[in-house]
């Protein structure tokens, strides 16, 4: 264990204790955590929870189309007779898969570029930041739409399109943190001891830049769910027969005034998941805010 | 504070995603009332105009063109015979090879020129010469004479029902070939001018705009005007049926040409609306690319055909369609029972395996294009995607506006062609020849032949049909049966899906609407009156 690790670990423990206390003390954060717990459970246990698992895939039962919510189908059936509850549960899996993929890609690319820019400074920083600025100049949804149009519409395309618009925020965030860390004493000390720049970046600068990134990730998750749902709604994301909430909303939109359940339940799922991520992200931000700890 | 903003954003965005299906509704004045100069607003889901030339027009613009131009005769859905339009009477001689039409007098074109037999002859001659769109309807004509101002004589190469042909929804328009003066007529027309004699003339055309076309009353129309008739017609492009439905409820449109069964049921309960339910000659067809891509392999086409669940589709349509038995709808010569496709997934699987696709073989991805906003087509696509997914085939289905879908389909570059093209078809006149001449006769470059079928034997059979229909009804019935067997079963070039039942709604203040299957989607607005 290096000396630099000591404050970091104690900081993390303090942060997580603070988060645990916050979830217990703050009703809204608690609700957000509970919702997310349910969404994660739905995604993990969809195989067991879904009453008609095959309906989440390629099965159709046209003769049972548009059945109202009832004992056999708690959330009714869609136009081709598929159980809406089963598709909503599997939709949670699709949404979380998108969130994880997008945020991992965006965070890895963004953090690596940001740390490099912040630590190296000079022309390296200028080049990376200008590229970042170019990406930031486009509205995220517009850029996602353009990319999704160029590539073949699919779940993978949606993930790539969203990730491409998301990484610059992480690059910018990490670059500003890394540029402040690079002047600190322990970095100078490591340099003087002859540690290579790459090692300094990976062992010292990167770990100390991650806390704000974690907060940003939790805040961004809700946005990713909404963007992915929007792309699927526009026919540029997930495709049939994938169970995806945005796609389900799109397919049921013409039935909203007559067969409300087809569009309402996936719409509510989007709302709840985005809401859960947002309030939990806010809670996490409060818990990990150093200014709060000093109070 | 930030938390509140974040929560609000999440709620607003999620609700927006969940509820934006209806599209935006702009506040516009109510239609058809006395306060709006009696404008009839037609809500249509697709682009309206693809071609303004009455000689070559062959697409959605029919809904406007039939109010701008007139033909010699008109099909009457109640008597199932043709009735007078620009011609007041007609008779055949020489065993159906000479037809004489007496024209209505006192008819003026919008240009101010008098419509006489010479003008009518010029219009039909030009249409035949341009050979665009469905000009084939005049194939039986060898010459046209105008011996008197009100007399038009057709000499035919073979006997044909020219009174019925003259009622065609396309290519039978009589127009002023001199309307453009010294300018090229086609160029002049393409700018949104018209040369018709009908009750309305083009007021404005805004391609790509929501209100794409506005027609205004032609004051010198031979049919005259009453105070309770519509003085203008607007065609408003509303891709989403839910948006159209909301606009109708707010009386911001007068007529919605197609509703879902669920919305139609609601309309029937709404006292401020009238509804119209009618069978049609319009069917939905899925064309398989026989010329390029993976579907050039007959086994793949037959596999996809076997994957289609027509029975399930009809169940899910809930009354808005009946199963197609072959290409020809019931009520027309050549209709045959027993040609409805039956789903058979094991057969489909073995056909795909034989072609080298499916589990354990090469992956197969097919592309499909269909009309954006058409819920019935979307239903078919959802069922087909699911069925093909069970066979390990991925279907990339793309909803498109008609112009984009058609442009891709008729591209001269085969690599741009889709594997499956979904569209509706209806006959040019009450006869099945239109399906075969347009959809399955070889055409280079492709026009409506979206299966890209090029088979000389099929071409010869199709070419023989008009004369055969006119001379030997029984043999024509059999020949159409043989053609359908060849195209659907042997060549698997197409999958006939269902025949539409029109479910429409319009404002209760409107009187006089009659659905006419020979002119699908057309509202003859001059026939309507408004009571308020």
Describe the fold and architecture.
The complex is a heterodimer of chains A (295) and B (532). With 295 residues, chain A is mostly helical. Chain A has a single domain, classed as Orthogonal Bundle (MetI-like fold). In chain A, 75% of the residues lie in helices and 0% in strands. Chain A has helices at 5-25, 27-44, 46-49, 84-120, 122-137, 140-150, 155-181, 185-192, 197-233, 245-252, 261-288, 290-294. In chain A, helix 2 (27-44) crosses helix 4 and helix 9 packs parallel to helix 10 (245-252). The radius of gyration of chain A is 22 Å and the shape is elongated. Chain B folds into three domains: 20-45 and 207-272 and 508-532, Periplasmic binding protein-like II (D-Maltodextrin-Binding Protein, domain 2, 3-Layer(aba) Sandwich), CATH 3.40.190.10; 46-198, D-Maltodextrin-Binding Protein, domain 2 (3-Layer(aba) Sandwich); 280-500, Dipeptide-binding Protein, domain 3. Helices cover 30% and strands 23% of the residues of chain B. Chain B has helices at 2-19, 62-68, 117-130, 162-165, 185-190, 241-249, 261-269, 298-307, 310-317, 345-354, 375-390, 402-409, 433-439, 456-471, 473-490; strands at residues 39-44, 73-76, 81-84, 87-93, 98-103, 141-148, 151-156, 200-205, 211-217, 232-237, 255-256, 273-288, 321-323, 364-371, 393-400, 420-425, 494-507, 510-511, 529-530. In chain B, strands 1, 8, 9, 10, 11, 12, 13, 14, 15, 16 and 17 form an eleven-stranded mixed sheet that branches. A four-stranded antiparallel sheet of chain B has the order 4-5-7-6, with helices on one face. In chain B, helix 8 packs antiparallel against helix 10 (345-354) and helix 14 packs antiparallel against helix 15 (473-490). The relative contact order of chain B is 0.16. Mean pLDDT of chain B is 91; it is low at 1-27. Classes of the chains: A mainly alpha (295), B alpha+beta (532).
